[in-house]
Protein 1
Amino acid sequence: SEPAEAIRRIDRESVHRICSGQVVLSLGTAVKELVENSLDAGATSIDVRLKDHGVELIEVSDNGGGVEEENFEGLTLKHYTSKIQDFSDLTHVETFGFRGEALSSLCALSDVTISTCHKSAKIGTRLVFDHNGKITQKAPYPRQQGTTVSIQQLFHTLPVRHKEFQRNIKKEYAKMVQILQAYCIISKGVRINCTNQVGQGKKSPVVSTTGGLHLKENIGAVFGKKQLQSLIPFVQLPPSEAVCEEYGLKSTDLPEKLYSKEMFAKMEIIGQFNLGFIIAKLNSDLFIIDQHATDEKYNFEMLQQHTVLQGQKLIVPQNLNLTAVNETVLIENLEIFRKNGFDFVINENAPVTQRVKLISLPTSKNWTFGPQDIDELIFMLSDCPGVMCRPSRVRQMFASRACRKSVMIGTALNVQEMKKLVTHMGEIEHPWNCPHGRPTMRHIASLDLIAAE
Ligand code: ADP
Ligand code: MG
């Protein structure tokens, strides 16, 4: 059989099943995917270098196993992975990533360069990729064992997203730091260091750990000694072992896998804290839930799923100047465009690239939409045809609507009302974060552990 680390194509059916939604990357997910790859490669030392908070450059270097020459081509091709072969493998995946599309997505969204030296190679290689993930330059490159992935100008291939990325960089950066901190804490025995350089200024440290073997050391390194004394930590801590066992959870997973949605219906409401938080108990685990954030996420997902945006007819139908491929993607996904308030007339007899005319745009009091939003939808749909999705600005609009209609901090809630909010968490796709990325809940303590102290 093939060596475990050879990079192979996943079969089509599995691809379809895995492709569960749109892969819209953020700075946080980009860094997360790269750090996961380094951890998967067995690195004990990982350096993350950012320029201008990640706008100019995101670079992750590791001392892991490196990539073998025969795997260079597969590195960035969509759905190529060394980690699974078919869907049944998914249930056994021990490594973090499994979809084989992080590097291919990053190539589509930015300028990617990889230098690597496999443990069996005499000298390293530097590879430059184009936006299709094809290698355009390949040259010998002296370096120690391991891999460096450089991402320049993330999102520059999607002008609207790129602008938004730069505009929201503070938030993106804050979220990325949180994710990195979580990895720093859970990665025992791995030294992680992250720096940021603004313009030509000097590098400033973002977060760093010493590769300690204990969670406690890592928490100390990330938050400083002071934080240890208060320990509601900023990151999700795993539930107790008993709960993990009962729900088949792995305590090293990220929040979405750390908890199971079935847990919510079974939680017992203990009470409200500071008119803003629900305290709930499951077996011997105590959780604190942000009442506004969680209601906001529920309302947001309901809007995302069910809202049919009203379109406003244009006076003059508008040409879109689409490429032939994009035109086909649009024609094949008309229903999804309609749900988003975009409508078109299709003239089958017109020459290819001239077949589509825009006749209706979504409208809302404070938002205007245009061809860039159509381009963005086409980009998402060419990845996952037929899967309902929304342009990022529609998402933003829903997020602000959801915020306005959700229960506010400062509102007293009775047990039934709290129970309803917590039950809702088990009914939605992604209850772990509010639409703006703030966590909705945290594990505070295990009563067993407290009793044992
Ligand atoms: P996945 O991690 O899901 O397999 P990725 O697109 O993240 O998909 O990576 C594709 C492949 O590239 C991985 O399966 C792995 O073989 C290789 N790879 C990526 N990053 C590294 C790294 N830092 N060190 C060694 N191999 C890597
Ligand atoms: Mg990966």
Protein 2
Amino acid sequence: MGKGDGMEKVVHVDLADRGYDIRIGPDFGSTLEAAGEGRAALILADSHTGPLYRDAVCHMLENNGFICSYLEIPAGESSKCLSQLGAILEHAVEAGLDRKSLLVALGGGVIGDLGGFAASVYLRGISFLQIPTSLLAMVDSAVGGKTGINLPQGKNLVGAFHQPVSVAVNLATLETLPEREYRSGLAEVVKYGIIYDEDFFGYLEKEQDALLRRDAAVLAHVIGRSCEIKAAVVAQDEREGGLRAILNYGHTLAHAIEAVFGYGVYLHGEAVSLGIVYANCVSEARCGLSSDASRRVQDLLEGFGLPVHIPRDVEWNPLRAVMSTDKKAQRGVPKFVLAERIGAVQFGFEVSEEALEAAYRSLASPDRQ
Ligand code: NAD
Ligand code: GLY
């Protein structure tokens, strides 16, 4: 993608004294304004993002008076685990990080979630800066303060709410993002259209080709609008007492797919794509979603090269068992976000076992193809 129009867009996450800006621009721009000056900083990256962007970020920090240390962990979902958390915390001690220090999460959602969680517990909490480099992290995981790690039993079962001091989206970093990872991020973008903004969904349909080409102007708009929607939801319900659950449209099945298949087999966005198609099926049965709307969503996901069918031989029971450990589940009964139409969802639905399984069969069924 090109450099766009060179303009920086700022989206504010309005959380009173924990509020912060998301800066979306063609470079690292004024990233560090909110991070203060003259402290120790630990840059956390993975084995892909570190070699690409570590030097630029380190120079920027040093130019602002920071003294940097650097830790690189293996790329991939399996690093979002207790042992890597331990490695980061031990590195932080050895590097002399104190309560005024800054952790810089330079990478995709794995680095952001893991680094943010490390920042939330180190010395009972230090500041952290999100520098998301995957599309998925730019539109979703870097915003809103959910941090955490996985356990073998399920996704994100350990974590904390810990807001970053700032989020710096450098659109140029998307130039190096592998195609499959890029498309994975588009699943979360489609989600925003379904849960909040029918016009935005229409824009995604219209600009499908431009998005697949990573057109800079279209991407800047799409990332900006996605961040605005997420910021609006988080500002109303930071700790997911209710409304914030809508950000998890499609995620109950998605998290189960990731856990049952093994982390990394389906990328997070790929699992979300399947989960969205599944949630649409349940929504048709329980919430009045029209089959036309369901079809439009499925077509858009397919247009982005995302999976919309699960292999027929995958059994339901193991997935259903993991769904009981979903954080929205109460006494093992998962609570669902369901769509009335594109742009309007409701949360807190309990769905009968028969309906849950029937939707799953439909997801696997060739007659939806
Ligand atoms: P990821 O962090 O594994 O990144 C995807 C891959 O792309 C990795 O191999 C990474 O090294 C590589 N990469 C990232 N940026 C790159 C770049 N610019 N150039 C080249 N390679 C690059 O995965 P992800 O899709 O970014 O994030 C998924 C994670 O985010 C999951 O763990 C998911 O649970 C979490 N998540 C969290 C939230 C939240 O609110 N905290 C929301 C959504 C997802
Ligand atoms: N990705 C879901 C949330 O941030 O609440």
Protein 3
Amino acid sequence: MGKRYVIVTGGVLSGIGKGIFSASVARLMKEAGFDVNVLKIDPYLNVDAGTMNPNQHGEVFVTNDGYEADLDLGHYERFLGVDMTRKNNMTAGQVYLSVIEREREGKYLGSTVQMVPHVTEEIKRRIEELEGELLVIEIGGTVGDIEGQIFLEAIRELALEKGRNRFFFVHVTYVPYLRTTNEFKTKPTQQSVQLLMRSGITPDMIVVRSEKEMDAVSLKKVALFGGVDLDSVVNLPDTDNVYQIPEILHSLGVHRKIGEKLGLSVNESFNWVYPKSFKKRNVALVGKYLGTDDAYKSILESIFLLGYEKPRVIDADMLEDLEKGEVAEVLKEFDGIIVAPGFGKRGIEGKIKAIEYARENGVPLLGICLGMQLMIIEFARNVMGYEGANSTEFDPGTPYPVIDMMEEQKKIMKLGGTMRLGAQEMEIFPGTKLYRIYGGKAKAFERHRHRYEVNVEKFPEMFKEPDQEGYRLIISAKSKFVEAVELDDHPFFIGVQFHPEYRSKVGDVHPLFKAFMEAIG
Ligand code: GLN
């Protein structure tokens, strides 16, 4: 069959779950029997999300091939159960960069380089590179955004070239509810559909997000003004379990609607198992990006997908000024602690205090990336007595650089895309807890995103073999660098240099999170 396209645009405001919706549609259509692929288009000028602040933009998701992506690629992986690559994300930055590079190389042969056709051609070329029978394309931002316009234009052209009947356009909007007058207000949605139509795109379906379930009259209004049948208006009220969405879409027959329009026959079978009830455990995620929960998305989802309530993000900065007793007072309500990844000095002393508390009190602790590096620093300072031990990231003149930049990184000056990135193989050592957690596998691929490494060559005395006596850290996995450390004299004290959270999927959460929650009990 020729390729088909489901295009998801957004209206009214951002942050209403377009990414979740797109991931859910992708899963729905996969279940309906198609070879589905996904593309997130980000109209911002950043080349990738790697240089963006998690407080503003949420977590940076890292793919196996070392691409630093928008967090929506995390949703796609978790919902679809398939690993994404750099091809699954296109930013305006990438598009313009390649057009300008081509221009400098003289490849446009003297023509005036313009938004249309040169930029649109580049966008279409990138879309065409993606494999799959059915492509779900999510356009970031909302219609009417200046930088998004060119992508709508490219897709409008693509639909003309390929045939409009191969395209299914879904517009996701928000309908606010006014408490004072007890009514839903559809005007912003009407206007947003009009904006979309001005770009030459008529929607085949309008998905209205709302705080609570909408009434029939309001839905009819959306249908009338949006120019779609009533049963092509899908209301999705707020839910605290986003994994319900594929099931809801299935029960509303969205797969059949899409199939009908695209001339495809769909399977009715639907195999989607996700957690529906959540045990309460108090897990603290000690971090410093507090602007939005999205900053730690994949970690929070990893715990949630195991059937536990999400961890609470605890401000590392707040712990920083507390005395030891006060730290214990704050943390004693928690059954387990995760120390978050991060960059820069702010918050590290608070995280180190949380680690000291967990190590001394036998509280299960999982340190991820920076979290593991700080476990090494805490151990150096408080067990080895190395006063002022630090990472050279935070204190270039430390007398004990237990975490340091490796030679190959030192030459790199630029910040974008220059870290140790993506999936790399490591060896896991028998006799360690990690080895058991990985089910006795001696090799694994894990994803990375960091610059600094454990300086084991310089400080070998901090570590011991699994069967050795003494209170020392055990190196439980290694590549060229230290990949994981643990303590044997503790219920669960494990730090990993890689990011297990990027590998968790619905029904297949990374074993480290499982083991961590089991240790909590
Ligand atoms: N800042 C640390 C490094 O660059 C850790 C990075 C992280 O936690 N992702 O090595």
Protein 4
Amino acid sequence: MFLGVLMSNASISIKNVLLFINNTFIRGGLYIEDGKIKKIAKDIKLPNADSVIDGNGNLLIPGGIDVHVHFRDPGFTYKEDFYTGSCAAAAGGITTVLDMPNNKPMINTAQLLNEKKSIGEQKSIVDFSLHAGLPEKLEELIRINQTGVPSVKVYSYLLQDSISMLSRVFSFVKEHNLNFIFAIHAESRQLLVKNKRFIDDVGLKKDLTYHALHHSPDAEVKEIEAILELVKTHIVPVHFCHVSTKEGSELILSAKREGYPVSFEYTPHHLLLSHEKGYSMGPIAKVNPPLRGQQHVMKLQGSISDVDIIASDHAPHTYEEKIKGIKDITKAPSGIVGVETLLPLLLTLAHNGFLSYEEAIKKITINPARIFSLPKGAIYEGADADLALIDRRKEWVIRGRELHGMTLFTPFEGLKVRGKVLMTLVRGRIVYQNGEILEKPGWGKFIESTSPIMVS
Ligand code: DOR
Ligand code: ZN
Ligand code: ZN
């Protein structure tokens, strides 16, 4: 049906598609030259190209942006690296990722960020940006601010006293006029410690229920509440990662409605899997924040229209590492892979009526582009030709062994989804088509944060 790998600077036209432009679908096609979208038109008006792709009436959307992935490179490349992680992204219609800093070493200096950029540029097949880790000395934030990364990631439960620490960090950022958004994993360390003491005293069996009670919903809600107070004092942009409670999202939403610079993300696993469903999978379904009870999941689903971003929190670990927790859940690492299944699961939620297709696509394209100031996420003349061709009606079943990253197991195993990525283009190159990776390591580029792009 489609042409194979194209020459690097070949012009391409993609005809007979439903283009997602300005939040709506338009029948037509587009013409790509030098990696950019040069012309958008009714098919008949497109210039002649070196190759012509017939989209067969499928959707052509901006490539997805996954703002939350752990590609483990450097430090844990036996779990995933920039090449394998980016192959999984490409196969899932994701053309830009924001990689988390919890590598070995933690990427929390300008020098380490620059080194990681060059690892990404040697290995990735999709474009990327990076989250910086919180540096030991706050002065380092001044240098980090010059590296072009948009955000600083904070794991609040790893800080002794997260609220006073964050207060110092926010004051520093304001004082030096630094342009960051803080991406925060919000869980209260004090409550985690208290919960653990309680369940250990009771002598609870160390299964997934132990993990869920340790990382309780109120540990998330209380921390979000305290951080929002800081935002109101310091007026610093904060993005809350993987919110798993409706109570947490309601607090963020009301601050947002009052005009404070806050945003938040949900993950497909918190939207589609519950503690009850995950229980029998044991350590495979261990993740932080944990899968919540069915009541929480339903409430989260009901509030999906309010969330700014859906992100995967792609967090690979080896099977050997995971099964160490079969008898004692505390011995397994937390994390679920998801960059490849993010878009199909989101399309499935849209198909099932939880939100419209238009809303769903915005939550992984233009919304993340705006929040993290990336010049990506929209189809317009002059934009990078980052695109995903999607068969919205195609039903298929998620199989771990068919994934394109290093991890070949997933808690979504066997789930029937509706919506299949047929082809992915990054800056005009076909990186993935019909099950096959077509690009070599190193095509991906580090994308500097800019002021937000304007799309009418
Ligand atoms: O489940 C998780 N896995 N939650 C985190 O916050 C970290 C992540 C990881 O890096 O494995
Ligand atoms: Zn996290
Ligand atoms: Zn994460």
